Amino acid sequence: MKRLCKHRTMKQLKNKQFNILSAGILVIFFFTACSSSKQVTAQATPEEITQAINNDRWNFTATFANPSYGTARDITGGYDVICKKDTLNVSLPYYGKLNSPAGAMTGNPLDFESKEFKLTKEERKPGEWLVTIKPVSSEVQSMNFTFFSNGSAQLNITMTNRTGISYQGKVAPVRTSN
Predict the structure, then answer these.
(1) What CA–CA distances, in Å, run from 126 to 46, 95, 149, 151?
(2) Phi, psi of 137 (to 5 degrees)
(3) What is the pLDDT, as a whole number, of residue 75?
(4) Whole-angstrom distance, CA of residue 53 vs CA of residue 71
(5) Reduced to 3 states, what is the DSSP secondary structure of residue 81?
(6) Which residues does 153 contact at the CB level (< 8 Å), separation at least 6?
(7) DSSP 98
C-alpha cells in the first residue's frame, strides 16, 4: 500500500510539473504573440530616407494620433502625408475640438491636396530633420515634421479653427514614378 501511495504521489507531482510547464509556455507564447514592438524597422535605408527628405519626395505614414483634446489612439488604414516637390497630399484622421464655428462646414481639415505651400527644412543633427510645411488657403497653419534616418517620424499640426493634433509614424521615400 505504501508503494502505491508513493507511486501516485510521484505521478501527481509529475502531472503538476507538466501542467505548470505547459502553462508557462502558453503564457510566454501569448505575450510574445500579442506584444507590439516599439522599434521602427525602416523599409528603406538611412541613405534613401536622407535622399527622399533632401529631394522633397517622401511619405509620412501615421500609426498613432495624440490630439490636444480627446483620447490618444493607434491608427491603421493607410493615413499619410505625401510630399512630391510641388504637390502635397494630406489624408489624416482628425480627432479634436472645434474652437470656432468658421471651421464647422469644412469637414475633415486634414484631408486635402495642395500645390500651394511653403516648405522649409533643417537638419538638426545627423539623422534628424525638422521639416515645416505651411499650406496656403487651408485651415492648417503649420505642419511640423521631425524625421529620423531610422524611419521613425513625428508630426505636430497647428490649425486655425480647431485644436492641434500630433502623430507618430514612419517616413519613407515616395516609391511611385510620379
Answers:
(1) 11, 33, 8, 14
(2) 55, 50
(3) 93
(4) 31
(5) strand
(6) 60, 145, 146, 147, 168, 169, 170, 171
(7) B
DSSP string covering 125-170, please?
Answer: ETTEEEEEEEESSSSEEEEEEEEETTSEEEEEEEESSB--EEEEEE
Task: Report the phi/psi class of residue 124: left, alpha or beta, with left for phi > 0 and alpha for psi in -120 to 50.
Answer: alpha
State the pLDDT at residue 35.
38
Q: 3-class DSSP state for residue 31?
A: helix
The predicted structure's pLDDT at residue 82: 97
* Nearest CA among 107, 102, 156, 153 for reference residue 134: 156
- The segments of the chain whose pLDDT lies below 70 read 1-42, 102-105, 176-178
Beta strand 128-135 with 117-125: parallel, antiparallel or unpaired? antiparallel
Assigned C-alpha cell, 150 = 531610422
Query: What are residue 69's phi and psi, to 5 degrees?
Result: -130, 115
